[in-house]
């Protein structure tokens, strides 16, 4: 199994109050036996509250690695990461899990739902981890499932739902703790284009409600929903500009 190197610099990041995600010189090196894979080689990224950012780039360029670091699923090998004004680059796994549960909603390409649990139970899970009592859990999980249009599918298990419905359960699960930041790694990658459009409408609503959204995609049509497109190549940011739609609206 791969392990990460633990060399971490002692530099402290400066971020202004409007910035929710600030990375400075972020490196991630996976060590596999004799071989080192430098998945990220010094990423500097600053994202302000309520931005909607698409991350694009070739396969293997480091997009998921970056999302995992931003989402506190993993720690950097070097560099600093400041999330909502707190330096989180040197926290323990337990501390990272606590921050992740509170601040971040993660949506994956493969939905990552518990196969034997109902939609309601899948959405309740993050609330079980943070100790919410059973009555409140049910009330909140039902409300968020209704908000993504699944009020009539709460008792269905993942294999009793369509792909789009499964992804909506995953989005409901990401939202149940009311995180301010939603991270999505190819959320439409396993969906047909019509269902993909429905899921993107849901992200647009979340953006309008004030959330910060960072979304990885291979598809230019999907990236156009964002306000800003960041391209990664070989572990570094190759370009960073307003999305064509946003640029056109500004003219
Ligand atoms: N756990 C790991 N152990 C070792 N190497 C890894 C690990 N995860 C990713 N890598 C390597 O790091 C590099 C970046 O991988 P990453 O998954 O971030 O790419 P990606 O841009 O998300 O690609 P894709 O578009 O195919 O999802 C790749 O060369 C990959 O092989
Ligand atoms: Mg990936």
Automatic annotation (TrEMBL):
It holds the Pfam family ABC_tran. InterPro entries: AAA+_ATPase, ABC_transporter-like_ATP-bd, ABC_transporter-like_CS, ABC_transpr_LolD-like, MacB-like_ATP-bd, P-loop_NTPase. The keyword Transport applies. GO terms for cellular component: membrane protein complex; plasma membrane. Residues 21-251 form the ABC transporter domain. Keywords: ATP-binding, Nucleotide-binding, Transport. The keyword Nucleotide-binding applies. It comes from the Bacteria. GO terms for molecular function: ATP binding; ATP hydrolysis activity; transmembrane transporter activity. Belongs to the ABC transporter superfamily. Macrolide exporter (TC 3.A.1.122) family. PANTHER family: ABC TRANSPORTER ABCH.1, IMPORT ATP-BINDING PROTEIN. This is ABC-type antimicrobial peptide transport system, ATPase component. The lineage of its organism: Bacteria, Pseudomonadati, Acidobacteriota, Terriglobia, Terriglobales.
């Amino acid at each position: 199994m791969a392990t990460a190197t633990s060399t971490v610099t002692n530099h402290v990041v400066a971020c202004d109050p409007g910035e929710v995600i600030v990375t400075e010189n972020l490196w991630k090196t996976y060590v596999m036996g004799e071989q080192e894979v430098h998945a990220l080689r010094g990423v500097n990224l600053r994202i302000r509250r309520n931005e909607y950012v698409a991350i694009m780039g070739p396969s293997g360029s480091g997009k998921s690695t970056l999302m995992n670091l931003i989402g506190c699923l993993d720690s950097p090998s070097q560099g600093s990461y400041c999330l909502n004004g707190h330096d989180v680059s040197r926290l323990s796994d337990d501390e990272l899990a606590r921050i992740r549960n509170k601040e971040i909603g993660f949506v994956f390409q493969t939905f990552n739902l518990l196969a034997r649990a109902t939609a309601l139970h899948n959405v309740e899970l993050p609330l079980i981890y943070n100790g919410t009592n059973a009555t409140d859990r049910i009330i909140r999980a039902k409300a968020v499932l209704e908000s993504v249009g699944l009020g009539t599918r709460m008792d269905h298990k993942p294999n009793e739902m369509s792909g789009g419905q499964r992804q909506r359960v995953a989005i409901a699960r990401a939202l149940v703790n009311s995180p301010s930041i939603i991270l999505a790694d190819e959320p439409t990658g396993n969906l047909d284009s019509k269902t993909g459009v429905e899921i993107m409408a849901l992200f647009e609503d979340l953006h309008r409600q004030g959330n910060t959204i960072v979304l990885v995609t291979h598809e230019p049509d999907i990236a156009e929903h964002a306000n800003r497109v960041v391209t990664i190549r070989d572990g570094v940011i190759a370009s960073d500009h307003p999305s064509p739609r946003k640029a056109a609206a500004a003219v």
